[in-house]
Amino acid sequence: MSDTRPAGKPKDPQPETLPAPATAAGALGPAEPAESAQPAGAGRASGDLRIALQFTAAGVVWGASFLFIAVGLEGLSPAQIATGRTVFGALTLGIIALVTRERLPRNWRIWAHMTVVALTLCVFPYLLFGWAQQSVSSGLASVYNATTPLMTALMAGLVIRVERLTREQVLGLVVGLAGVLVIIAPWAGVDLRGGLVPQLALLGATACYGFSLAYLRRFLQGTGLSGVMLALLNVGIAAVIMLALTPIIGRDPITLDIWIVGSIVLLGVFGTGLAYAWNQNVVRAWGATRAATVTYISPVVGVALGILILGEVLVWNEPVGAALIFVGILLAQRRLRLPRRRR
């Protein structure tokens, strides 16, 4: 994927109930919920199909989110895009919460912790992704987003200290880092503005995701809040923060057309709203480990849409680096295990 975003108008980010991008689901490992038992017979088949459709839809929506951001950047600033997506996402989740009769928590500590989560799971990464995609392709951004499970393992093991890193996780981090270096391609020369700094910003965004997931695991596990309510608090607080910040950092001129407006609405309603709720259903039905395999759908969708709709060009080192990142994820999520040492 070329590091420069095409200028033409196209035809068009992580306990069991974490309101997180599915790319990070299950990345913390041992504390995953047990796989849920399914009812027998036709009801089970129907339920399995519904969950499979939600799983696929979440992967496609999260992969398409980078296309929507690229379209939005044709007429909006990164801050304006972040505001739009959080507002539409909060409205969507609010409607779901009303229908399901969810109740807001009264404990101020939960609100304080969720403010930290809103900053690190929405505000900072949304701004960073938007800023970076002014210089790098949407497909490349989707590949970097796939490093979220690696960042989650790193933050859980070294920063928040939720768990100790295993040999497999350490190796996974090393392999994933190697994949990132292959994508950056330092042998091709360092272009700070056009390549390196925006790609580091993408890594900063996924580091925020990883921190927020580990933070949720440590401070909000066992609160009794549903996945929908956690997602609503997260996105809702982020929307309030962005509405307050936009008059300061989002004062750029606005150009709107049907494609830009449609992209922001889709990004908010689906990518920042419904997909969160779908992911909660998948995690509860399949368990976090199996749900985490959506990690492999979203970058494929993101790269494909970038090529087909935006006319982006795939460079050889990007799929090679992505493959290394995926191997690193398999190790970090303990899907690949090293041989045990003989005593």
TrEMBL record:
Keywords: Membrane, Transmembrane, Transmembrane helix. Residues 1-41 are annotated as: Disordered. The keyword Hydrolase does not apply. InterPro entries: AA-Vitamin_Transporters, EamA_dom, EmrE-like. The chain crosses the membrane at residues 51-73, 79-99, 111-132, 138-158, 170-190, 196-216, 228-250, 256-279, 291-310, 316-333. It is a multi-pass membrane protein. It is found in: Membrane. GO terms for cellular component: membrane. Residues 15-34 have a biased composition (Low complexity). The keyword Cell division does not apply. Residues 53-184, 200-331 form the EamA domain. Belongs to the EamA transporter family. This is Drug/metabolite transporter (DMT)-like permease. It comes from Microcella putealis.
